[in-house]
Amino acid sequence: MFTCNLTDETELRLLEIRHAEALYLLTTSSSAHLREWLPWVDHINHVADSRAFIESGLKQFTHQDGFHAGIWHRGQLAGVIGLHGIHWGNRSTSIGYWIGDRFEGKGLVTMATKALVHHCFDELNLERVEIRVATGNPRSQAIPKRLGFTEEGILRHAEYLYDHYVDHIVYSKLADEHQ
């Protein structure tokens, strides 16, 4: 199973079925905060919905096609980070992340993303890692910028978010840019 210690108080752990209730509670308690940028929030209505998400990540992990890891801080689930899928022919992936509102501002997502980028290049031997962020979400944009990703451009109307489309900025990092 995938685990990674970030600090004495913070770690990444592959989400498992036993984490479904914690994931559900974090998602629902942060739904107003998350809903601004994530189109799936309104579809999380029961613990079973969180369980299904975890099962999909475990299936990805089994097939070496990505995974979902919990960001655990001081023993509590604080957020989620993962690989949306791995394109082995191109040796590329994209990273997605979110954090519960009460855990914002602690640098947890930046630490988690940095660790996952290292995993992608050092363990999985990938060539390219991508992060896509809504143009109106500066907090999320700050993460790839801090980690030395290159801004490649804007995908117009890349995602339908409840009642409107949002544009995405595409950031990438290549293996030879990784330290």
From TrEMBL:
It comes from Salisediminibacterium beveridgei. Coiled coil: none annotated. One of its GO terms (cellular component) is cytoplasm. Keywords: Transferase. The gene is ydaF-2. Signal peptide: none annotated. Residues 21-176 form the N-acetyltransferase domain. InterPro entries: Acyl_CoA_acyltransferase, GNAT_dom, Ribosomal_N-acetyltransferase. One of its GO terms (molecular function) is protein-N-terminal-alanine acetyltransferase activity. This is Ribosomal-protein-L7p-serine acetyltransferase. PANTHER family: RIBOSOMAL N-ACETYLTRANSFERASE YDAF-RELATED, RIBOSOMAL-PROTEIN-SERINE ACETYLTRANSFERASE. The keyword Oxidoreductase does not apply.
